[in-house]
Amino acid sequence: MAREIRDVVEQYVKLVGTGPTADIVDLYAPDAVIEDPIGTEPKQGHEAIREFYDVIASLERETSLAPETVRIAGNHAAFVFTLVTRAGGQRMTLSPIDAMEFDDDGRIIRMRAYWSAEDMSVEPE
Amino acid sequence: MAREIRDVVEQYVKLVGTGPTADIVDLYAPDAVIEDPIGTEPKQGHEAIREFYDVIASLERETSLAPETVRIAGNHAAFVFTLVTRAGGQRMTLSPIDAMEFDDDGRIIRMRAYWSAEDMSVEPE
């Protein structure tokens, strides 16, 4: 299970950087819940999750996983990754810790992202 | 609140390395719940939390926070830290991601630790 979860984490980070959104959504169970950042209104189900990731779908972007941070415990994982987007001459960098829970089929059933404005930077390109 | 939470995270990691247990327990709200590692039976309340930290109280040990990993979102925090213990000629290193939730007084109400045997190493000193 740990190997499978690590694979999903790696796919997740890669797909957030490349899309398509549908492939990100497919990593989630149909009734999965995301809370990004944690403390905001949770979004449940594939349609809400699709809308969430569609926000970045049109942006030039790239992602990288900090592989040394990946922690897996049973059906749970947590890790640091970085998302860089470029739009309107600005480069935005966001680096959250994501915490995920998985079902026995290796689908994400819950994702909670730990970050605030302090973990984001915006610079001219 | 973010500043206060960061202070508690720093105190927590320091106290796990130095004790006393009572000072660690004081960082928790009376009815706080810990799950370490996540997926194991949660332990609730100061007495159960005291028993949990008492396990390492007699060991020679040190801790370090990876400050660049600290993420704070509202009343939540997540971070990587490392605990090194020395006993019986062996050096054990454990490096979890801890996820914490805080009450409005800055006390920890929930701690969940992400780690498995893969994040632990044991070596002769």
UniProtKB/TrEMBL annotation, chains A, B:
It comes from the Bacteria. Residues 9-111 form the SnoaL-like domain. This is Steroid Delta-isomerase. It comes from Nocardia jinanensis.
